[in-house]
Amino acid sequence: MKLIKAIIHPYRLSEVREALTEIGVNGLTVSEVKGYGRQKGHLEIYRGTEYAINFIPKVMLELVVLDEQLEDVVSTIASSAKTGKVGDGKIFVSPVDNAVRIRTNESGEAAL
Question: Which PANTHER family match (predicted)?
Fold first, then answer.
């Protein structure tokens, strides 16, 4: 099993979720996050005053998938989140040793 963390633009969330549903992903967790990378933030003007926005709002998706689903899920996230501009985000993949479904006490792949 693998844990996938994807940080993407908030406005791309619907497209990514729909694409993942089409390939059979039945659950994910979404968190609102802020950060910066090559985008470096930007300036905004509010009521005539200029403000530096150093941390850009993003969303982070977290999902655990079977090893055989990994490539499909990563490529689906990458293609549906891509705009072709700086700040499209990142995808991180980590191994998962175990998972437990609390309601039934199932563990391993059965918990997914």
Answer: NITROGEN REGULATORY PROTEIN P-II, NITROGEN REGULATORY PROTEIN P-II HOMOLOG
4/47 Cα distance (integer angstroms): 41
Alpha carbon distances (Å) from 11 to 7, 15, 49, 98:
12, 8, 26, 32
DSSP assignments along 24-75, one per residue: T----EEEEEEE-STT--EEEEETTEEEEE-SEEEEEEEEEE-GGGHHHHHH
Alpha carbon distance 14, 81 (integer Å): 9
Is the pLDDT reported for residue 51 higher than 80? no
Whole-model pTM? 0.85
Which residue, 108, 39, 24, 30, is CA-closest to 73? 24
